[in-house]
Amino acid sequence: MQDFTVFDSRQARHARLTDLRSDTVTRPTPGMYQRMQDAPIGDDGLDGDPSVRALEEAVAAMLGKEAGLYVPTCTMANLLAVLAHTQRHQQVVLEANAHMFTTERGGSLLAGLAYTPVEGESGAMDLTRLETAIRPGAYRIPVGLIAMETSHNSAGGAVLPLAHMQDVNALAQKAGVPVHVDGARLMNAAAALSVPASEITQHTDSVSLCLSKGLSAPMGAVLAASRSTIGLARGYRKVLGGTQRQTGIVAAAGLEALQTMCARLVDDHAKARLLSERLNAIGAPLQASRPQTNIVQVQIGDTGMTSHQWVDALETHGVLTRPWGERMLRCVTHRHIDDADIEHAAAAFARVFEQRVSA
User: Fold this and answer.
1) Rounded CA gap, 72 and 242, in Å?
2) Which residues contact 205 (CB under 8 A, 6 or more apart)?
3) pLDDT digits (tens, 9 = 90+) for 19-63
4) At 149, which helix (H) or strand (E)?
5) CA distances from 157 to 108, 118, 320 (A)
6) Confidence class for position 8, pLDDT limits 50, 70, 90
7) Between 74-85 and 227-239, two packed helices, what is the crossing angle to 10 degrees?
8) How many helices (H) and strands (E) does the chain have?
9) Domain check: are 272 and 256 in the same one?
10) Nearest to 25 by CA among 336, 310, 292, 295
11) Phi, psi (5° rounding) for residue 149?
12) N or C: which end of the chain has fewer CB atoms below 10 A?
């Protein structure tokens, strides 16, 4: 059973509420609250905050980079990487369904850049198409950055193979273009590959890491890169209004998350696989993806109900999910989901499907 309170009327309506909408619903651990209470703090916009510095140094060391920069969100971290690596009127090349393209490309308007999508499979760009996209030419807009994403949100939490990342980096180096990785769920990717995160990030010039998803911190992300890149990003952070003051209070929770929550992500992955098995046992036309990490995509397009209708129907049974287009639901496991929640969710899916068939 979940160990936090949902602050709306849904909790009162259900004896059990299973929230599979996102791993962003995770709440801080008691250890995080203690670190927040005891955190040494300062003004991060003036002479610095010691807890922020400790977090930035820890993330940079874990990811094999020279420096880090703490920011409110991973969206800002990705935008700062784009601004620091590129010049106006250049291209940012990235996979066609990458979060930076589908959700965050409004930042391109601020940066004066063109975001150019490259088709791929399971979140991995087709290398031949990528090579064509970054090839210089008299009438081509110069490419300023190549971006990857792992684990890949829209690809159902798929993890990029290290060989693919190495190949992308080789193409980028040949073209003289830096590489950034949107690592909002980077630690999930590392857990799935059973490698240190630095083995993933060695193929990149910069990487963002979100602390408030599976790692359960209340907020924040860190951008890690070279000292010169972070220096530029720090200036852009100020321009964007991202400088915070006594932010060591929440940075301390992020440091606790980094030190205590990474190893347990494999549990979330196991719960996702169990959920997939239980949903597929219901039978066609309900089809659940076989997840590598903690995201399960459920195809419901042939059930006669839209994704929004499914979301509403499941909520009446105490299960919260998210629509992912009109024909798919997304379910995300996290530390507040246990085996009983998985069984509860599977039973709710089965009841909704049975009610639809008998209607």
Assistant:
1) 7
2) 85, 178, 179, 180, 225, 226, 229
3) 999 999 999 999 999 999 999 999 998 889 999 999 999 999 999
4) strand 143-149
5) 25, 19, 19
6) low
7) 110
8) 15, 15
9) no
10) 336
11) -140, 125
12) C
105/20 Cα distance (integer angstroms): 26
CB contact at 8 A, 77 and 208: yes
Cβ burial 131-162 (10 Å sphere, 16+ → b, else e): bebbeeeeeeeebbbbbbbbbbbbbbbbbbeb
Cα 99 to Cα 16, 79, 156, 177, 183, distances in angstroms: 32, 12, 12, 20, 11
Q: Average of pLDDT values for 201-226? A: 97
Write the single-letter amino acid at 64. Answer: G
Task: Assess whether 329 and 198 both reside in one domain.
Answer: no
Q: Name every residue whose Cβ is closer than 8 Å to that of residue 43 and which is 6 or more positions away in sequence.
A: 49, 245, 246
User: For residue 335, what are the contacts with CB-CB under 8 A and spacing of at least 6?
Assistant: 26, 214, 216, 261, 264, 267, 268
Task: Say yes or no: 182 and 78 in one domain.
Answer: yes
Last residue of a domain, one of 215, 231, 260: 260
CA–CA dist 145, 87 (Å, integer):
10
* Segment 65-94 mean pLDDT: 97
Whether residue 307 is preceded by a cis peptide bond, meaning omega within 30 degrees of 0, is: no
In a domain, 25, yes or no: no
Q: DSSP letter string over 103-122?
A: TTTTHHHHHT-EEEEE-EET
**Torsion sign across C-alpha atoms 78, 80, 81, 82:** positive
Q: In terms of domains, do 60 and 200 share one?
A: yes
CB 62 within 8 A of CB 261: no
The model's pLDDT over 326-356, given as tens digits with 9 standing for 90+, comes to 999 999 999 999 999 999 999 999 999 988 7
pTM of the model: 0.93
- Segments forming the whole domain that contains residue 179: 40-260
